Structures are given as C-alpha cells and as structure tokens.
Amino acid sequence: MTDTTLSTQESIFTSTARDWSSDMTTFKGVPWGKAMMWIFLLSDTFIFTCFLVGYMVMRMTVTEAWPVASEVFALTVWGVSVPLLLIAIMTFILITSSGTMAMAVNMGYQRRKWAVFWLMLATALLGASFVGMQCYEWSKLIIDEGIRPWGYAENHDLGAPQFGSIFFMVTGFHGLHVSVGVIYLITVAIRVVRGKYDHTNFEIVEITGLYWHFVDLVWVFIFAFFYLW
Amino acid sequence: MATVEVPYQETVPLHHPKTWIGKYIFSQDHKIIAVQYGITAMAVGLVALILSEFMRLQIAFPGWEFMNFFTADHYYQAITMHGMIMVIYLLTAFLLGAFGNFCVPLMCGARDMVFPFVNMLSYWVYLLSVIILMISYFVPGGPTGAGWTLYPPQTITPGTPGVDWGIATMLISLAVFIVAFTMGGLNYITTILQARTRGLTLMRMPLTVWGIFIATFLGLIAFPALFVSAVMMLLDKFLKTSFFMPAIVSLGSKLEYSGGQPLLFQHLFWFFGHPEVYIVALPAFGVISDLISVHARKNIFGYRMMVWAIVAIGALSLIVWAHHMYVAGMHPSFGFFFATTTLIIAVPTALKVYNWILTLWRANIRITVPMLFALAFVLTFIVGGITGLFLGNVIIDIPLSDTYFVVAHFHMVMGVSPILAIFGGIYHWYPKLTGRMLNDTIGRIHFYFTFIGTYAIYFPMHYLGFIGVPRRYYETGISEFYPVAAHNLNKFITIAALIVGVSQILFIFNLVHSYFKGKKAPANPWGANSLEWCTPETPPRHGNWEDRLPTVHRWAYDFGVPGEEKDHIPQTVPRRKAS
Question: Does any domain span residue A3?
C-alpha cells in the first residue's frame, strides 16, 4: 500500500491527531472569526448552564409549591384556555428563523449577496417578532397574573416567589441575546450588500449563523425546563 | 503530506497607525497593550498592598492612636478590596493580560493577536472595571466589607459595610472585568490555535504559551459562573429577588426575602473560584518552566509530561471546587468526593515540581535575577502546596478552617508564588520589551527583601493557625485562648510586611530608572531559544517580524546539545540532516 491510500482510509482519530499535531493551524481551513465564535459560544454555554443549574437548585430547594406551568402559561382564545399556545408559536418562529439563517449561509457561499440580505433580514424579523411576543408574554404575566420578579402582587400568590425571579432573569437574558442577535444580523446583512466582505468567502454569514443557531438551541433548553417541567 | 501552507498573517497587510495616540494610547499592538495591562495591574496592586499594610498595623497594634481612623468597617472593607484586587485585578490581569499579550504572539511567531481591535477593547474595558472598583471608595458607605468571597446572606444584609452601594460597584466591576477577560481570552486561544507560524506545532510551543493557553481556557468556562452569581446577587440586592437570601431577621426586623439558597452562591462562586487559582497558577508554572530551563542551560525535564500535567491540572481543577465549602453545611458525603479529587490534583502538580528540580539537577545554573525568582517560586510553591494537602482533607480542614493557617496557605501558594513568577518574568522579558537591561544589583536586593520578607510574613502564620487564631478579626484582645506569643508574632509579621511593602519601591524605581538609564540590552541577553528572542529588532517593532514570518525547526529547549558548538540553538535554526 502506498502513502496516499493510507491517508484516504485513515480514521477520524488519526486525522484529528494529525491536525492537532500540525503546525500553523489546528482547525484546517477554519477562519479566525469562526474559531473565535465557537470558543465564545463555549463560554456562553457555561453562562446559560449556570443559570439553568441555578433554576434547578431553586426548584429542588424551595419549600413552597412551584406554580403549574400549563396554567400560568395558558392563553385564552375565544374563551378557551389553551396551555402553552403562545410559547408554541414563539418556539415555532424561532426554529423557523434558524431555517432562514441556514439558507442565508448557503446563499453566502454561492456569493448571492441579495439573497443573503433578504434571508438575513427575514431571520432578523422573525427574531424581532419573537422578542415582541416575549414582551407580550411578560406583560401578561406581570399585569394579569400578578407575577413579579420579587414574588407576587397582592392576592396573586401562586407559591414560591422564586418562580418569577428565575423566569424573568433567564428568559430576559435569553431575550437580550436574541435582541443582540437581531442587531448583529441586520448589521451584517447591510454590510454584505455594501460589499464589505467581497474579498472574503462570506464566512461572516456563517459566523453570524453560528451565534443565531446557538441562541435557538438555548431556547430549546429553556423551553423544556421552564414550560414543560 | 499536506500542501505547503502559508501563514495567513503573511498574506494580509498590517495596518500601521500614523498618530502618536494610535501608537501608544489606543494602540492595537499587543506589546503596548501588554504594557498597559501591566501598569494598570501594578497600580491597582499597589493600592491593595497599602490596604494590607493598614490591616497588618491594626492587627499588630490595636488601639494605637495613629490607627484610630481605621475602624472595624474600614478593616473589613480593606480585607475585601485587598483580596479581590490581588486575585482578579492584579494576578489574573497581569499573568494573562500582560504576559499573555506579550508572550503569545511573539512566542507563536505571529504578527499580533488575531483580532487586535478586540484586544485593545479588552484593555479599555478592563480599565473601566478597575475604575468602577475604585469608585467604591467614593460612594456613600464605601466599598463592600463582606470579604472577597462575598457570601450571602451577610453581603446584602444591613450592618455589613458598603451594603448600599459598595456591593453594587463591586459586582458590576466584576461583570465588566469578565467581559474584558472574555475579549482578551478569545484572542489568546484563537491566536494559539490558528495563528502559529511555520513549523510551530503545539508540542513545540514554549511552556509559557501552554500555561497561558490552558489558563485562558479555564477562565472562559469558569468566569461565567462568577458572572451569573454577580447578576443574581445584584437582582437580590436591587429587585429583592430571593435567589440567595433565605427568610431572615436582621436587626430585629424581618427582611423581605424568603426561601433562597445561600449555598447555591457558594457553589457558583467556587466553581469560578477554584479554577481561578489555576488560572493564576498555570501561566506562572509556564513562565517558571521557561525561566528555569533558560537560566539552568538545560532542556526542561519531561516536556511532554509538563504539557500533559498542565492539561490534567486544568481538567481536574473544574471538579474540586467544594473543598472550599467543607464547613459551609453542604452534605458531608460531598466532602469525600471533593477531598479525593483535590488530592488527585496533587499528582500532576507534584510531577511538575519534580520536573523543575530534575531540570536543575546537574545543570549549568546561572544565578541571574530571574533565576533567583524562579528558584524562590519552586520553594514557595512546595510549601504552599504541602499545606494544601492538609486543607484538602476534610478532617484536618475542619479545625483549621478560618484560621491563619488558611491565610498562610493561600498566600504562599496563590499570593507569593505567582507574584514571584511575575517578578521573574518581568526581569526576564524586560530587556526584550524595552531594549534595556534592569539594574542587576537593585534586582538582587529587591529579590532578597521580597523572598526572605514574605517567608517572615507567612511562615509564622502557620503557627498562628495551629493555635487557632481566627482570620478576619479586627481585634482579638488578651484571653486564655490567645497567648502573648501570638501577639508578639503578629507584631513581628507586621514589621516584616512593612519592610517587604517598602522594598517594592526598589522594584518600581528599577523599572523606571532602567527604562531611561539602563544598559542597552543585546537581542538575546539570556541566550534563550524561544521565538521572542529571534525578532529582527529589539524591542520588536509593530508587526514583530520581517515580511516573512520565522520558521520553527525545533522545540524551545535545545540547551547544551551534545556535539553542538553553541550551548543553545534557537528555534529558528534548521535541524541537521540525520547522518
């Protein structure tokens, strides 16, 4: 067997070991910005992990009853109380935005700048509508249900005061991420059509996409832990 | 075989700033940023040093008229600020901000960090965090006096100094610092992984870079826990949430909190706090490895072992945090797990110490000033590490908790050791950074004052701890439990601390004086091999290298190779064909 046949048959372990023991770059063909975004997301993962672990500890240690998610988060449509309706729509919107983002990345590598622009703008709009619906959800919880960050309004006692605290904190922090992502998407979209990235391979679209998919993924966890548990 | 690659940095032109401000103030040059980090960290460190001298004066001479202004509140505020400044704003910022910025691109053969603008931002955000921290002294009530661990519920319960505003400035400053660290840290990691020069594999990197690499990685996954706990505590303080605050009666009235979990804060804090020890220690390990190898004219013993020890320590440091909490009231079974992991971490650490000693064995040791500091580091680290084994065991830790033994332990292992590594590193790299040598005589005097002085301070503290003297007490008074000997020892420690504190003036004088009047430094005064000594100019200009980046052919530790004429072979020298 010659060397070339060996290298085509090598296992993923062999090629990983070779990349890590090579000079210059460890991740071959990965632009700096992309590597940096991945490492940043690793760090950000730990922030959300700490938040969610804090939430789990609260759920385990509070002595008062935890409010029932399907009642608190129900939406009344034509007189019928539908549990988790709003949140289902929000989740659907955010997952859809991941789809448009993936399409934008694809268009980026085909160098179709206007397609990238419109798809990123669609992603940003979906993200913005997610934040908008979150505002609606918050105001409903605060005004109708009487849930406050520090507990409950008078005559609205649903149980453990930590419910509101941790809910507003974690969804607020996630909403902040989405809002930053919307600004980021719009900025990159405009810079793409202005030709700022013409000399590159449009990997900036993928980098933006990495952040956006991360924010989506975090939402899946928040959704599962806060609304389904 | 891979095709011949070109380092990306050779293909993009470097943007040189035209104005003085662009060159020296809002500079994107990693060397200038390193100096900015270093000066800021040293300045804020001096503040912390002065605070510690006040604390020592109070402990040794309670009731002295001169110290009348220093009330118990001031004492607790000084403890808190001293601890937080030293651990985060001096040690972390200096070892990663200054050494990281200076060493990483130069030792990797890069022109600069991968994102110089973000790197510059990192410094300015760090400066902002320092300013916010210093504002603590000017807000009503002064800085927080909760101790550097900021344990709730005490931290935000009325009666603690600085409960109104000091705690807010502290927490906000920490959050801002974490933002700064993240921006810098992402740069270091990406540079090390993706911007090395030709021929520089990971296993040819100097150990300094390895230490900074793993430490930064640890920082990026440990600081989020501090960030989260800071956010939650700010909410507890200002929005009256009850994350950390149980129902509590304070000063006769019931507070508005109920059902919180104070232990959660301790877990979050120490999930940051223990890796933080290694965030500080690992770069110091790296610097010391390089210093010992260069000044002993011998290759580092067991290079691969050293690298894997750094990686293993980094990984283990994430699962030992609750050994800080043996007496906090957590489930006793946890103690078993965390004591075990804590003692396991001693294995790779001891391995490093053995390798340093074996590097020195039968070496051609040159007792230069950096070498003095390196040797002192190894000694101090052994002392601090061994007392760590005592405190890592639950059964020994419980009687020693909150005594001066703990103070002695962590000052030896985490205070003095990294500071010695920082001094050693400064004496080692100053010629490359400024093009001038530091004054050797002043350096030696500074070394002996610092080294012997710190032992005079911290060695007796072990004894104080054994007889049960509690830490963080403003004033103890004479009692059966507190013999006269302890008072005398406290006076001795304070006098030693004052001498050590004052002797640092020598160091600062040396830095400033040598910058203007120092002897011109040759390109490679120590005969070292790593890439920073191979720059075409000393000090290196913006961009560090000629049009072509250097090519690395060997590791950084080819000292005294048999059959070679020179006693050291820089990394850029090609290897001879095997005959």
Answer: no
Q: Which long-range contacts (CB under 8 A, 24 or more apart) does B495-498 make?
A: B495/B60, B496/B453, B496/B456, B496/B457, B497/B52, B497/B53, B497/B56, B497/B453, B497/B457, B498/B53, B498/B56, B498/B57
Of chain B, the percentage scoring pLDDT greater than 90 comes to 85
* Average per-residue pLDDT for chain B: 93
Q: What distances in angstroms separate CA A37 from CA A152, B175, B183, B191, B391, one per listed residue? A: 39, 20, 11, 13, 39
As a whole number of angstroms, the distance between CA B138 and CA B495 comes to 30
The domain total for chain B is: 1
Q: Given an 8 Å threshold on Cβ–Cβ distance, is B193 in contact with A35?
A: yes
Measured CA to CA, the distance from residue A171 to residue A148 in angstroms comes to 14
pLDDT value of position A8: 62
For B325, the domain range is: 26-245+258-534
Task: Give the closest of A27, A149, A173 to B241, CB-based.
Answer: A149
Q: Which of A207, A211, A225 is nearest to A105 (CA)?
A: A207
In a domain, A20, yes or no: no
Residues of chain A contacting residue B268, judged by C-beta atoms under 8 Å apart: 50, 54
Q: Say yes or no for a CB contact (<8 Å) between A49 and B224.
A: yes
Q: Model confidence over B520-543: pLDDT tens digits?
A: 999 999 999 999 999 999 899 998
The model carries a pTM of 0.95
pLDDT of residue A48: 97
Q: Which of A39, A40, A44, A157 to mutate to test the interface with B (most CBs of B within 10 A)?
A: A39
B395 interfaces chain A, CB cutoff of 8 Å: no
pLDDT tens, position by position, A179-229: 999 999 999 999 999 999 998 889 999 999 999 999 999 999 999 999 988
Task: Name the residue facing A23 among B201, B239, B258 (closest C-beta).
Answer: B201
Q: Smallest CA–CA separation between A25 and chain B, in Å?
A: 4
Give yes or no for A133 touching B (CB within 8 A): no
The ipTM value here is: 0.93
Q: Is B16 inside any structural domain?
A: no
Segments of chain B with pLDDT less than 50 = 1-3
Q: Would you say residue B20 lies in a domain? A: no
Residues from chain A contacting residue B7 (CB–CB below 8 Å)? 24
Nearest Cβ partner for A47 among B186, B204, B228: B228
